[in-house]
């Protein structure tokens, strides 16, 4: 995965609290292989009605929203299920960053692991950015180093944990990183087997 | 003098392989559960040509997609059949023990882990499922992870984690009749919000928690994620040890004694400091139901449906209005009396033996006015419930008694609530579309769901328990 630190794109406002991962991708789509692309499933039941027709009043169906790469939402974005498919749906749609006052913790980790920025802003700043998007999609600029987002002339600072910032900017992959610590893992494992054998399943079983 | 330590400190430090300069720790994983939904992670592993590092610490469980009406015939739905087969294939390829369809040990992952003694105090347990927090009831660190992390654990048996902040929820006093762990959980989540415990590990403590059975403790820890917590945990005690002793994979003989010695030290020191402390009066908690589309939308069953006009600001008013529209509720009406179309008793939250007993206690000798499904948390729970005759109580009441799986909680296996229908449910999420597109979910305890089934509407279970012996 390649890292990134600056982005110029199009922002869309979703002035809703609690967009959970069940809404980001309804469970019934999760058995599909990723190769089909998950962008079509993003917020499916909010974007489309029961007959599959786009709901015209939903912001992601506005003219110009098909190019959306930045979403702005209210508190508790991505809460709920650990399904990484929620992040796949966003990324495959073309989203690079979500701006909101709070995110689910598991969603945050999943986002970082897929190069998606979960940018935490103050609730008032989210309101201000949402107001700037009331009339429809607008240009957005994000600087991960500086921790700033700018939409239609409104700017805000966002919070991101240091380790997440580094990982996102450098596009680091955990399995590669952990490979450097193989000896430490082996040493831990051997110590565990000797000192705490009960932590292995079924140790001492007579059958 | 050593610094006072929390339960989290003790378990965390026992798993730390190393800590980076930025404070992120590489932690050893003692148990890793995979299910049908883990196919993305196995695909990542295959793509990179990697093997499972510790097959003996990794267990496969068929639960998310398994049909609950099965009698040995092949699965009808090709998509579901493929999901179950893919898990079987991945387990075979990597030499993992599988608790699959037809295995008497099969069940929902968070029910069978403890039942089989795979879950133990002082372990670190992960699974690609957010309700993994359930296992924290045994004093272990247990949390849900995404597919990239699942692949990492498969390949390395370790996981990178930033240490969470600590929060203690102390439940004082005693719970009233008809009030359970589910009500405690919905109560605190309504108070703090669905993101109220974000970034925190919660230790549940106090007399109410100490008196809870393991089933109740699991329900409480299970719902930690619904309040935004990274995980929840409870110090192990004699109740914990009695639940585990003799379970299939639990240590035996001298190993059990040695483990017990360590487990008795797994607690927070009396003067340990927490980043946040929350105190709740157990006696003040009523049977609780949700009215909206987030677990934080919870109120005593005696309360009224919120009115957008009472909201603090325009955004909140809009949220209440749109939630009530989805839920088909009118502001100001009492929650009790809201008609329901069906009920569901099941899920990793509330489908253990004690939960089924609580529902059966209300249903015994009564008849449900609406259809409903009862799916035991595991095949073992099902067998035990049948040995006690609970299945006959549910059937006599008019409810359907089926096999074990995640079923109507996540609606992946074909069990779903039709659009526009209202379901009283013992599950964990009332999200829009969770139980099926357009489904309206009200979360509550098993006893409250049983009461709703009998009355055909949301109702206070307490009067219905009068004269009935506590189970």
Write up what this structure looks like:
The complex is a heterodimer of chains A (207) and B (471). Chain A has 207 residues and is α/β, with parallel strands linked by helices. Chain A has one domain (6-172): Alpha-Beta Barrel (Aconitase, domain 4), CATH 3.20.19. Chain A has helices spanning 21-24, 44-47, 85-93, 105-113, 123-132, 162-170, 174-179, 182-195; strands at 6-14, 68-73, 97-100, 117-120, 138-143, 148-151, 154-157. A seven-stranded mixed beta sheet of chain A has the order 4-3-2-1-5-6-7. In chain A, a hairpin with a 2-residue loop joins strand 6 (148-151) and strand 7 (154-157). Chain A is globular. Chain A starts with 5 loop residues before the first strand and ends in a 12-residue tail after the last helix. The radius of gyration of chain B is 22 Å and the shape is globular. Chain B has helices at residues 7-13, 39-48, 78-94, 109-115, 147-156, 181-192, 207-211, 214-222, 238-244, 253-263, 314-327, 353-363, 379-388, 390-396, 446-455, 462-465; strands spanning 16-19, 24-28, 31-34, 58-61, 97-99, 124-127, 141-144, 158-162, 165-172, 200-205, 231-233, 276-281, 288-290, 298-300, 342-345, 372-374, 400-401, 422-425, 440-443. In chain B, strand 3, helix 2 (39-48) and strand 4 (58-61) form a beta-alpha-beta unit. In chain B, 32% of the residues lie in helices and 17% in strands. Chain B has 471 residues and is an alpha/beta fold. In chain B, the strands form five sheets. A five-stranded parallel beta sheet of chain B has the order 5-4-3-6-7. A five-stranded parallel beta sheet of chain B has the order 17-16-15-18-19. Chain B has two domains: 7-276, Aconitase, domain 3; 298-461, Aconitase, domain 3, CATH 3.30.499. In chain B, helix 2 packs across helix 5, helix 6 runs parallel beside helix 8 and helix 12 (353-363) runs parallel beside helix 15 (446-455). The model of chain B has no long low-confidence stretch (mean pLDDT 97). At the A-B interface, helix 4, helix 6, helix 7 and helix 8 of A face strand 2, helix 2, helix 3, helix 5 and strand 8 of B.
């Amino acid at each position: 995965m390649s890292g990134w630190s600056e982005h110029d794109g199009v922002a869309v406002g979703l002035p809703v609290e609690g967009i959970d991962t069940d809404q980001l991708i309804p469970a019934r789509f999760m058995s599909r292989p990723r190769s089909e692309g998950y962008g079509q499933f993003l917020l499916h039941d909010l974007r489309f009605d029961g007959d599959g027709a786009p709901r015209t009043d939903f912001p992601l169906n506005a003219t110009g929203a098909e190019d959306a790469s930045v979403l702005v939402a209210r508190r508790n974005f991505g809460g709920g299920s650990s399904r990484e498919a929620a992040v796949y749906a966003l990324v495959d749609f073309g989203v690079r960053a979500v701006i909101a006052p709070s995110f689910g913790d598991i969603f945050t980790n999943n986002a970082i692991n897929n190069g998606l920025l979960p940018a935490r802003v103050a609730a008032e700043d989210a309101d201000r950015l949402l107001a700037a998007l009331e009339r429809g999609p607008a240009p957005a600029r994000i600087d991960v180093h500086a921790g700033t987002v700018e939409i239609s002339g409104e700017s805000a600072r966002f919070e991101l944990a240091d380790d997440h910032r580094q990982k996102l900017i450098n596009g680091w992959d955990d399995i590669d990183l952990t490979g450097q610590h193989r000896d430490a893992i082996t040493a831990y494992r051997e110590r565990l087997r000797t000192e705490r054998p009960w932590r292995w399943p079924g140790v001492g079983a007579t059958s | 003098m050593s610094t006072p330590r929390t339960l989290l400190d003790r378990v965390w430090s026992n798993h730390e392989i190393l800590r980076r300069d930025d404070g992120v720790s590489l932690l050893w994983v003692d148990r890793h559960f995979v299910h049908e939904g883990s196919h993305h992670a196995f695909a990542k592993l295959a793509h990179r040509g990697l093997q499972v590092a510790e097959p003996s610490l990794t267990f496969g469980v068929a639960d998310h997609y398994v049909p609950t009406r099965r009698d040995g015939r092949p699965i009808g739905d090709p998509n579901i059949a493929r999901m179950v087969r893919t898990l079987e294939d991945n387990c075979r390829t990597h030499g993992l023990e599988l608790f699959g369809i037809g295995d008497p040990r099969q069940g929902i992952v968070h029910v069978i882990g403890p039942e089989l003694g795979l879950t133990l105090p002082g372990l670190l347990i992960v699974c690609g499922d957010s309700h993994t927090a359930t296992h924290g009831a045994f004093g272990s660190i247990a949390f849900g992870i995404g597919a990239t992390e699942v692949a990492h654990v498969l390949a390395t048996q370790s996981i990178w984690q930033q240490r969470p902040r600590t929060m203690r929820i102390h439940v004082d006093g005693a719970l009233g009749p008809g009030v359970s762990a589910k009500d405690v959980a919905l109560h605190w989540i309504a108070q703090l919000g669905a993101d109220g415990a974000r970034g925190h590990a919660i230790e549940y403590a106090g007399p109410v928690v100490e008196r809870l059975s393991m089933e109740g403790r699991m329900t409480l820890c299970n719902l930690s994620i619904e309040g935004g917590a990274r995980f929840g945990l409870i110090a192990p005690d004699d109740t914990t040890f009695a639940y585990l002793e003799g379970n299939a994979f639990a240590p035996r003989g001298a190993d059990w004694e040695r483990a017990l010695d360590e487990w008795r030290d797994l607690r927070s020191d009396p003067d340990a400091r927490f980043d946040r402390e929350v105190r709740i009066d157990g006696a003040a908690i009523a049977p609780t139901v949700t009215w909206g589309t987030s677990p934080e939308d919870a109120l005593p069953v005696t309360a009224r449906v919120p009115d957008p006009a009472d909201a603090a600001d325009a955004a909140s008013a809009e949220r209440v209005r749109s939630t009530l529209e989805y839920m088909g509720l009118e502001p100001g009406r009492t929650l009790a009396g809201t008609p329901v179309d069906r009920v569901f008793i099941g899920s990793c939250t509330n489908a253990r033996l004690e939960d089924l007993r609580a529902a059966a206690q209300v249903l015994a000798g009564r008849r449900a006015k609406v259809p409903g499904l009862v799916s035991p948390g595991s095949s073992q729970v099902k067998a035990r419930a049948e040995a006690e005759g609970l299945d006959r109580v549910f059937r006599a009441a008019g409810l359907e008694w089926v096999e074990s799986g995640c079923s109507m909680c996540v609606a992946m296996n074909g069990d779903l609530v039709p659009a526009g229908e209202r379901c009283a449910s013992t599950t964990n999420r009332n999200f829009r579309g969770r139980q099926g597109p357009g489904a309206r979910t009200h979360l509550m305890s098993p006893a409250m769901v049983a009461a709703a089934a009998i009355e055909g509407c949301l109702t206070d279970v307490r009067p219905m328990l009068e004269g009935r012996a506590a189970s």
